[in-house]
Amino acid sequence: VTYKFPDGFWWGSAASATQTEGASDVDGKGKNIWDHWYELEPNRFFDGVGPEKTSQFYYKYKEDIALMKQIGHNSFRMSISWARLFPEGTGDINPKAVEFYHNVIDELIANDIEPFVGLFHFDMPLAMQEIGGWESREVVDAYVRYVTACFEEFGGKVKKWFTHNEPIVPVEGGYLYDFHYPNIVDFKKAVQVAYHTILSSAKAVEAYRALSQDGQIGIVLNLTPSYPRSQNPADLKAARICDAFFNRSFLDPSVKGTFPEDLVEILKEKGFMPAIAKGDLETIKNNTVDILGVNYYQPRRVKAKESMPHPDSPFMPEFYFDYYEMPGRKMNRHRGWEIYEKGIYDILSNLKENYGNIECFISENGMGVEGEEKFRNAEGMIEDDYRIDFIREHLKWVHKAASEGSNVKGYHLWTFMDNWSWSNAYKNRYGFVSVNLDKDGERSIKKSGYWIQEVSKNNGF
Ligand code: BGP
């Protein structure tokens, strides 16, 4: 073993409720915005394949957890569906949902797989969206009731909680760039939504600590290092502002309890400051996270703004910088994302140097690939060597960071088994395990699944 990881390293993968459970309309589950958006526009991104037609984890969780065990997982991040637990977002809890999540958590623990549980993974209950979603303070309060119910119900067993998954994504998708419901373009609302999300996370941390349970609570952020085109002051400045918008906006309040000054300055200057109630900033200051999940897929390549936007165009972060295509960059052509393995090391180094070396883990990293069936061999196994390379090369950088003192505790792939995607339904596959939708969701372990089994067994490679 050349790359040996720290003892007790967390090997596993991540998934989310909406993307895997299916059963979106049974046992009392309420609708969330994805059920709703799919009904409204089934062909927008989803190719006529909605969240109902997924891997059916709701029914097959035992089989799936057995496969997790088989490929050596010692941990797994799932999420609880708010709309399953509280069909109206607030009010009465759904006993069938309580039973389901107890069963899943018990099954994981019985298989020596530690459950890491996320509380919000893009899936706003429709009833909550109808009163404004994260724009509304009422929804923040309802979220706190929901998460408190989760801590009370499952906190005896679950020792790792995550308030949000990639909270910036619903802001970008829903309020700026048109890929999540309610798909509007309104920077002022985007800021309010972002602010309330951050506040809700701090309030969840506060609610968790008030119960004095013996676990940890964190947040999962997608961090996208912003690399400047050159060391010219204008390029450096552009990259710094891009970083403020897309990384420090959530990272600073979550870990330090403060907001980045350069970002606040812009918001003030443009008249986009959110409504902040008395006491909020203390709540944010006093309730930073114990642990950080880092999702890393790709960096941003940034240069100074070259052309001014049309005066009538709505305000966007991109008023301050342009992206450029770095010559020679490596691409995953399926997803249109750059592959830059060292980015994962740069993030971990930044956390070590500038964020108190907070305890963290890689909570998502992965490679979406279209048409993987063509790699299925005569024995029926998908030979995804490209995914093995992708993981191995990223892990080398994680290993380097760990050996230099980063407090990184684990690596989770996105995702355990092929699942439904918010942006392309079943086109791009990410899993260690394939799911054949034409054969009643038949599972089969890919070559990468057998590979990670060895890595996990040896705690390295
Ligand atoms: C992350 C999300 C996941 C997952 C993943 C892959 O942003 O946390 O839920 O969807 O990206 O992205 P996609 O399915 O869009 O290719």
UniProtKB/TrEMBL annotation:
Which SUPFAM superfamilies does this chain map to? (Trans)glycosidases
Instruction: Indicate the residues that form the catalytic site.
Output: 364
One protein family per Pfam: Glyco_hydro_1
MF terms from GO for this chain are: beta-glucosidase activity
Biological process terms in GO annotation: carbohydrate catabolic process
Q: Does the keyword Ribonucleoprotein apply?
A: no
Upper lineage: Bacteria, Bacillati, Bacillota, Bacilli, Bacillales
In which organism is this protein found? Pradoshia eiseniae
- List the InterPro entries: GH (IPR017853), Glyco_hydro_1 (IPR001360), Glyco_hydro_1_AS (IPR018120)
**PROSITE patterns from the xrefs?**
GLYCOSYL_HYDROL_F1_1
Q: Which GO terms describe its cellular component?
A: cytosol
Q: What is this protein called?
A: 6-phospho-beta-glucosidase
| Family designation | Belongs to the glycosyl hydrolase 1 family.
Specify the superkingdom.
Bacteria
Q: What are the UniProt keywords, alphabetically?
A: Glycosidase, Hydrolase
